[in-house]
Amino acid sequence: MLQDLKFKNYRTIAAVTAIVLFSLSFYFLYLPVYAVNEEFTVNEGDGLSRIAEQLKSENLIKNELFFIFYVKALGLEKELKAGSYIFNGFISVPRIVSLLAEGFAEGNDVRVFISEGSNIWEIDRVLFNAGLSGKGDFAGKFYRDEGYLFPDTYLIPSQKSIRQSAEKTQNSESATELANKMKNNFKIKTKDILTGLSETKKREIIIIASILEKEASVLSPELLRKESLPECYCKLTQRSVMGRVKGSLNI
Fold it and tell me: InterPro entries, alphabetically (predicted)?
C-alpha cells in the first residue's frame, strides 16, 4: 500500500512537472511578442549568449535561457548570421531563430562568406568577385596577417564597392574593413585559447592549425602509420605552399 502511494505521488509530481515545463516552454518560446519596425543587429563574432542578451534587452524575447536552449536543441548555435534585421508584427522565438539562421538581414550590405581553410589569395578572390576590391588588393596588403584572419560571414557596406567608386585605389576601404573585422573576430574567438602563451608559441600553434585546417584530409590513418608526424607536417606544408603559389598565379 505504501509503495503504491509513493508510486502515485511520483506520477503526480512527474505530471505536474511536465505540465509546468510545457507551460513555461509555450510562454517563453511560442507565445509571440509584438514588434513595430524593430531593428536588431548581430555583429560579427557575437556568440549565442550575447545575441540572447541583446534580444532580451530589446524585449524581443521573454527569457534568455529558453532562447539559448532552443537554439542548441536545434544545433543552430553556430548558424546565426551577422546582419541587421527588421522585426514587424507578432514574432516568436522559432521565427527569430529561423530568420537569424537563414540570414534574412535587411539593408544593402554585401554578405561575404570566407570558408574555413581559405588562404589569402582565396579571400582576395572572394572580395574581387563580390565587387568589393581590386584584384590582388587584399592579398597584397594583408598577406602578413594570414593565419590571423578568422573565417566567418561578414557584412561589408555596399557603398564601399570599389567597382562603384570613381577612383579605384589599390588598397580599397572594403579590403581594409574586411581584414580588420577578420582580425578582431580572431582575437575574440581565440582569447581563451592563446592567453598566457608567448608570441612564438602562439605563432607555432597558428601555423600548424592553419595547415591542418586546410589539409586535414591528408592525415589519414594509413599515412600516419607509414610516416612520422614531422614528415606528415612537411607534406602538409608543401601542399599548402603549392596551393598559395597556384592561387597567386591564377588570380
Answer: MLTG-like
